[in-house]
Amino acid sequence: MRKAISVIMSGICMMPLLTACGNPADTVKSADFFAMDTYMNLKAYGRDAEAAVAEAEARIYELEQTFSVTDEASDIWQINHAAGEAVSVSADTISVLQTARQMHTESGGAFCISLYPVLRAWGFTTGEYRIPTDSEIANLLQNCDDTKISVQGGGVRIPEHSAIDLGAVAKGYTGDAVMEILREHHISSAMINLGGNVQALGCKPDGSAWTVGITDPFAPDSMIGTVRVTDKAVITSGNYERYFTGDDGQKYWHILDPETGCPADNGLVSVTVIGDSGAQCDALSTALFAEGTEPAVQHWRRSGDFEMILVTSDGDLLMSEGIAADYTAKKDMPCRVVQRDEKP
Ligand code: ADP
Ligand code: MG
Fold first, then answer.
1. pLDDT computed for residue 341 by the predictor
2. Ion ligand 2: residues, Cβ under 5 Å
3. What's the mean per-residue pLDDT of the chain?
4. Is 282 in the pocket of ligand 1 (CB under 6 A)?
5. How far is the CA of 282 from the centre of ligand 2 (A)?
6. In terms of C-beta density within 10 A (0-12 exposed, 13-18 middle, 19 or more buried), how is residue 126 classed?
């Protein structure tokens, strides 16, 4: 699978200098592996880097099992097969579901984890792609309602014939869990890439900011630009990652619009969200993509705790004002910087 973001880790300075994020006694540990249906890389600098990365990798496999929709031992499988009964689940699942419920509200319903039966009908869960009929989609949509997901104490209940999947938020939550482990091991500098979800801890060992590339959705082998970040998540949702071309010659992608049950086609082809929390940025990138251009801008104006880089289907770039100074363009595209206060 093509990944949304490439990480540039150029010029890492190994000089024995005491810097903002580095220490002469630091060692570097890197791990590459496949989990949650995607390629992952962890890279950490610190005295305890080896143990930290090993523990983080184990935690990722644990969360993969917890959030899987196909593993019968997973919390999500149990919830989806409880025929309307309450299921007792882990604190991780409760926390992700709370983020998802909140994003459903904040996005005016565009973020909807109970779309799973519709995603399945399109074949996005198996790769056996097809275009469902209008009546099939209309029938399935009747059971897609995130407000009916009940989370009480350690228990979760969804209506019979409903099913949820955490594909839009699980990797971001997992990134936060990895960051927690790295901090516990006093890692001063780290960069993780969980299938395009990039999260940075501190800055590079030489004291400069991390640089994260933003994929060009129209030419995914190249970048539209880069952003400089320290201690931030940089998470992209795009229409170029998982899609198929139908017999009708049209492109169909994996982020659906709950209004139509079809791929969200509301003016955006790529949404990058930059913020402190991986779970929030991951959920937001999917939410804003589904919402579409103007609602996404309004969502950003209401929120105030994240920045965003949008690419429209017309090839324009829209960027929130708080990230503009950290963005370096690699391609010449029309660009609008969105201000917090709406200008007449
Ligand atoms: P990826 O994980 O592929 O990088 P996203 O974070 O945007 O991309 O998540 C896309 C996944 O979210 C889909 O594969 C599907 O499981 C789920 N999904 C699709 N549409 C929606 C939606 N409107 N709301 C919530 N989840 C969605
Ligand atoms: Mg997401």
1. 87
2. 168, 282, 285-286
3. 93
4. yes
5. 4
6. exposed
What SS3 state is found at 145?
A: coil
Which of these, 117, 113, 109, lies nearest to 137 by C-alpha position?
117
DSSP state, residue 217: T
For residues 321 and 326, give the distance between their C-alpha atoms in angstroms, rounded to a whole number.
10
Residue with the nearest Cα to atom 6 of ligand 1?
A: 168
Query: Is the CATH number of domain 6-47+191-338 3.10.520.10?
Result: yes
- For residue 282, give Cα distances in angstroms to 141, 146, 235, 297: 23, 18, 6, 17
Which residue, 190, 189, 192, 202, is CA-closest to 172? 192
Question: Does the CB atom of residue 253 touch ligand 1 within 6 A?
Answer: no
Q: Which atom of ligand 1 is nearest to the CA of 196?
A: 4
Question: What distance in angstroms lies between residue 136's CA and the mean position of ligand 1's atoms?
Answer: 20
CA of 117 relative to ligand 1 center, distance in Å: 13
Q: Are 98 and 151 in contact (CB under 8 A)?
A: yes
List, edge to edge, every strand of the sheet that includes 219-229: 7-8, 210-216, 219-229, 327-329
Q: What is the tens place of the pLDDT at every residue in 280-290?
A: 999 999 999 99
Decide whether any atom of ligand 1 lies within 6 Å of the 241 Cβ: yes
The string of pLDDT tens digits covering residues 307-341 is 999 999 999 999 999 999 999 999 999 999 999 98
286 lines ligand 1 (CB under 6 A): yes
Question: Quick one: pLDDT at residue 205?
Answer: 94
Residue 190 in tokens: 């780290």
List of the chain residues with pLDDT < 50? 1-18
For atom 12 of ligand 1, the residue with the nearest CA is 168
Q: How far apart are the first and last CA of the chain?
A: 43
Pairing of strands 307-312, 317-320: antiparallel
Q: What is the pTM of this model?
A: 0.94
Q: Does 256 sit in the ligand 1 pocket, CB within 6 Å? A: yes
Closest to 146 (Cα-Cα) out of 106, 90, 87: 106
